[in-house]
């Protein structure tokens, strides 16, 4: 029985800076010969479409950007040979039902399978099946909740519910030879994962996942071999030029090569580097940072206190980048803050915001974020308030 080679890429979506190349189908200009050859060498190619393919001009109401690509830009993706796309992610529902329908139609017409979302809460297609060389391989996709939840009469994604997802993984593994999970979640903009993320990945592996990959963070994290499974915490972008500025986090990504045989499997990460309009294969394959973080990650899992402190400190430093957004949202509209922002540096403004709260206020905020009961209460209060304001705005 021959082996099956699968290439899995991270976030991919045409953007204004490279849409002309996607529309013309010029994959050599977008990705370079070495990367194109790597994709051509695979039996199957998988990626995450971080957005939708639609020409609609009506995004849903939400906080944050709404991301789409023109239907005509699918040409280069087809030429690259993408066979399957995960669509359970942050931005796939940004243009609502029309964006969903347009994306399904575009992919179907171009022979690209998709999974991770569905017509409504009762018909979400969480996985895709590959039959190759006498073996069955399952691709499974789940995501954390954003503005993407399905309803009884509205499309949406396969939301991560630990009990249900692990039960589905267990059942799928009973009827397949190999199971790959694409998990969309985590903290954006960090090389490091949280203890919560590690527990989630371990539970999915305990229930039968052979490979678990996290996307969404737009940064390369670490790898871990857990029991008989391969876990990749943070794959980084593939070709996702949403931000113009190129930070070290956005400058690299990983393409994962899986070779599955009767004797087991091999996981090989390939480093890709962002270019002005696309991404190319890193000929030096400098994975030193990735392997160094992975080594520290292994040490903390073995109970190394120093490694744990170092890892958690770096994770905390990356999370601190969200300080201004976090505190500004909790304060609401504040004219004094607007004036301060004009005169203070970003770091000074962060300190100003943090010092605006008392210990009791911080403890209260933490309670609503950490405690499941109060988290639910807080979400209900916000949902009711949003409904009231939306009704008033329409009057």
Helix content: 25-40%
**What's the CATH architecture name of the largest domain?**
4-Layer Sandwich
Shape: globular
Mean of the pLDDT scores?
93
Total of DSSP H or I helical runs spanning 4+ residues: 13
Overview of this structure, please?
- With 395 residues, the chain is of the alpha/beta class.
- The chain folds into two domains: 4-302, 4-Layer Sandwich (Purple Acid Phosphatase, chain A, domain 2), CATH 3.60.21.10; 321-394, no CATH class.
- 39% of the residues lie in helices and 25% in strands.
- The protein contains 13 helices and 19 strands.
- It has helices spanning 19-24, 27-40, 74-80, 96-109, 162-173, 195-206, 288-301, 305-319, 323-331, 335-343, 346-354, 359-370, 372-394, and strands spanning 4-12, 44-49, 52-53, 68-69, 84-86, 113-115, 117-118, 124-125, 127-132, 135-143, 156-157, 178-184, 211-215, 220-226, 229-235, 237-239, 252-261, 264-274, 279-281.
- The strands form four sheets. Strands 1, 2, 5, 6, 16, 17, 18 and 19 form an eight-stranded mixed sheet that branches. A six-stranded mixed sheet has the order 9-10-12-13-15-14. A three-stranded antiparallel sheet has the order 8-7-11, with no helix packed on it.
- Helix 7 (288-301) crosses helix 8, helix 9 (323-331) crosses helix 11 (346-354) and helix 12 packs across helix 13.
- It is globular and about 65 Å long.
């Amino acid at each position: 029985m021959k082996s099956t080679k699968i290439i899995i890429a991270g976030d991919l979506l045409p953007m204004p800076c490279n849409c002309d190349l996607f529309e013309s189908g010029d994959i050599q200009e977008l990705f370079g010969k070495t990367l194109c050859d790597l994709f051509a060498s695979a039996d199957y190619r998988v990626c995450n479409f971080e957005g939708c393919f639609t020409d609609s001009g009506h995004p849903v109401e939400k906080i944050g950007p709404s991301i789409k690509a023109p239907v005509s830009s699918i040409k280069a993706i087809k030429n690259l040979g993408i066979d399957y796309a995960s669509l359970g992610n942050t931005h796939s529902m940004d243009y609502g039902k029309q964006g969903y329908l347009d994306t399904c139609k575009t992919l179907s017409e171009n022979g690209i399978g998709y999974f991770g979302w569905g017509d409504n809460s009762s018909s979400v297609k969480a996985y895709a099946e590959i039959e190759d060389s006498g073996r069955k391989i399952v691709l499974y996709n789940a995501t954390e909740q954003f503005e993407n939840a399905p309803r009884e009469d509205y499309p949406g994604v396969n939301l991560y519910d630990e009990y249900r997802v692990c039960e589905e993984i267990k059942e799928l593994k009973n009827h397949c030879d190999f199971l790959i999970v694409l998990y969309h979640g985590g903290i954006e903009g960090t090389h490091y994962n949280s203890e919560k993320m590690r527990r989630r990945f371990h539970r999915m592996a305990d229930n039968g996942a052979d490979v678990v990959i996290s996307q969404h963070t737009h940064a390369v994290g670490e790898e871990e071999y857990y029991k008989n499974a391969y876990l990749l915490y943070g794959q980084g972008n593939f070709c996702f030029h949403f931000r113009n500025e190129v930070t070290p986090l956005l400058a690299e990504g990983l393409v994962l090569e899986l070779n599955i045989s009767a004797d087991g499997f091999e996981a090989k990460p390939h480093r890709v580097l962002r270019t002005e309009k696309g991404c190319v294969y890193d000929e030096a394959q400098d994975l030193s940072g990735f392997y160094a973080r992975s080594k520290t990650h292994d040490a903390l899992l073995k109970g190394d206190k120093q490694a744990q402190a170092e890892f958690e400190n770096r994770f905390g430093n990356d999370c601190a980048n969200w300080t201004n957004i976090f505190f500004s949202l909790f304060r609401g509209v504040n004219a004094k803050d607007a004036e301060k922002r004009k005169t203070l540096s970003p770091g000074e403004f962060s300190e100003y915001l943090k010092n605006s709260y008392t210990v009791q206020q911080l403890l209260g905020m933490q309670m609503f974020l950490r405690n499941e009961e109060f988290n639910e209460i807080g979400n209900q209060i916000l949902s009711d308030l949003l409904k009231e304001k939306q009704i008033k705005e329409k009057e």
